[in-house]
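Re: beginner question about structure tokens

> Can someone show what the tokenized structure looks like for a real chain? I only ever see the sequence side.

Sure, here's an example I had lying around. Input first:
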Amino acid sequence: MKTLQKYILSEFLKLLAIAAAGFLVVFITVDLFENMDNLIKHKVPFFAAFSFFLYKVPFILVQIAPIAVLVATLISLGLFSKHGEVTAMKAGGVRILKAVTPILTAGLVISLGVILINEYVSPAATKKSDIFRKNWFGAQEGTFGREGLWVKTESGILNVKHVDFTHNTLNGVTYFIIEKPFKLTSRIHSRSAAWRNDRWIAESATVWKFTPGGEAQKQIQAGFTFTDLSEPEELVNLENFQQNMSFNDLREYVNDLEDEGYEATKYKIDLWGKLTFPLVNFIMVLVGIPFALKTGRYSGIASGVGLSIIIAFSYWGVYALTRSLGQSQMLPPLVAAFFPDILFLAIGALMLGYVKE
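And the corresponding structure tokens:
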């Protein structure tokens, strides 16, 4: 790597670190105020509270990475252009696209890093954050894995394969009734249960009762009502645990859902999103470079940040639209997940082709 390329890359990385740190502080500050009442109410020690927010850092970094990369690209190259350094490069016979190659490479490396964080770091950190909530805030105990949603209730343990909040139904419901210290007394299974009259009701359920003598008694009950289960609103946050699963775990979960005949469109979009979202970091660099070189001479830091917000919102608008169409089954999950990336990748490549050497 030539000295000029090292210089450009170093300036980009400096601004990237500043932008990422700034966004991280904002997110943590907002989260701190949201949880302040609970921290004070439960008298959480300082170091315990510090660890709670530390567990959230990987997830936050993944979310802010694209906008931080875009801001760093626009401001660094914009300042080069504004201060006449781009003109000096051209006068010296330096090809601009070759000079900014390290930034494009950095975008690819960041994308790969985000994929690795999503796969190995974020799921583990999120689980620790959830354990903290249970231990200190008394939040409802629940987790999400390849077998679906698991929730601990007063009477036992609930397993749900899939939650449909559009119709307020639970699909693939298995409820284990457990007496203390840990004695299984009943197992209830139903293909689905609907929220009616403030209760979860299954049209038909298979009930197994286990006697102290070790016998198992099977009954089929119509209109079975599940007791001690959370309302739909309380299950929303628990069901969203799937967003923090690794790619392999979510893929296995989707396969299991389809094998059992349940609808898995939403989870397929989330599955492919674990690959498409990290690639946004590279795409933001690709889109940002021509914008910065085009407007840099006449703009400053404020303009760079403003332009970053416009581009970011444009991407999120397309992303939200295609995701909504995918969940409505108007688009295949693969198209819904990849279309925003393909669109902005094409725009970035087209604009890059007009960059004057």
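Each token stands for a local structural state, so reading them left to right follows the chain. Residues 3-138+265-352 form one domain.
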